[in-house]
Amino acid sequence: MSGAAEAPAAAAERIAAAATTRRVIIGIAGPPGSGKSTVAELLVDALRARGVRAVAVPMDGFHLSDAVLEHLGRMGRKGAPETFDVDGYVELLRRIRSGSARTIYAPGFERTLEQPIAAAIAVEPEAEVIVTEGNYLLLDDGGWREVAAELDECWYVDTADAPRRERLRRRHEEFGKSPEEAAGWVDDVDEPNADLVRSTRHRATHHIEN
Predict the structure, then answer these.
(1) Model-level pTM?
(2) Which domains does the chain have, with CATH numbers?
(3) Helix residue ranges, H only, the chain
């Protein structure tokens, strides 16, 4: 993924310069399996290498728990926009944007459990750049449209469909689904979500070819 590796490194100088005067929030969007978290990690590493205090805060920490999804009848759509606490995510971004003399704690997401974990990520007052990634950062619908307003810029990760789908299938198998269940989930859940995310591509400030 040379394209994704080069883009964060090249952008890090520009972002680091902006962060000398204010806190910067960078969003990274893209379809499921496009490599958003990898791009976020590369950007954070590139910024830290330049002495910038950077923190990754993924949108996935705002997944509704399985218990809540079962109660709402949305378990079979896990990963769709309506299976996230978007209002909580927007409020966190606003708190991060406004700054704080205290540490702000953000939720993380544990892949082995497939569950959000409260207060898993610390955003210290000294943090200069926050990198947040998720599928729906550019979605212009309901509470999601408020996300983009809290971002200084938002990158969109483009990737070929075949390897992206294969990556998703392997991920689902790794975390407990049978091969048949994994393939069915990719077709029935992930791909409709991917189509929705692709419709937001034009709203991105930057594009990365993965």
Answers:
(1) 0.92
(2) 2-209 (3.40.50.300)
(3) 2-18, 36-49, 66-72, 86-98, 161-174, 179-185, 191-198
